[in-house]
Amino acid sequence: MEWKDCKHSREAGKYYSLNQETFLNFLRKHKIRAKRVLDIGCGGGELTLKIAEAVGAEEVYGVHINDKAIKAASSKGIEVVKYNIENGLPFEDNFFDLITANQVFEHINNTKLLFSETFRILKIRDML
Questions:
Q1: Are 97 and 125 in contact (CB under 8 A)?
Q2: What is the DSSP letter of 122?
Q3: Are 41 and 14 contacting, i.e. CB atoms less than 8 angstroms apart?
């Protein structure tokens, strides 16, 4: 039996969808606005676009390592960079207004580096 066909996969899918909706509702409820958005591990871009819409983004970026996902997200108008996030993030300091990473950190070895890099490229640093 394939993972996608088993009961545990269907249960996980429900929680994954609930997680996404909870996050999108948070953005809407708190009227979060962001001109430039990055989605780390953007996959095919479906959630990335929902996030961009919720915050009124004008520029939407993604990072992914998988060519198939990059092609799918790029076809949706997302500026996708192919990059191994275990090596950091290939963006300049203070570049993004909002950075998301849904279901990503648990898959990497050096979380300290990814948190550090996320902080480096997030504009909020200027507010501290």
A1: no
A2: B
A3: no
| Residue bearing tokens 């983004």 | 57
The type of residue at 34 is A
Domain 32-127, CATH number (from 3.40.50.150, 3.30.250.10, 3.40.50.720, 3.30.360.10): 3.40.50.150
Which structure tokens are listed for 97?
Answer: 């207004």
CB atoms within 10 A of CB 37: 24
Record the pTM.
0.86
The tokens 């606005």 sit on which residue? 33
Query: Residue 98 in contact with residue 34, Cβ under 8 Å?
Result: yes
Query: Tokens 């708190």 belong to which residue?
Result: 30
Q: pLDDT tens across 52-91, in order?
A: 999 999 999 999 999 999 999 999 999 999 999 999 999 9
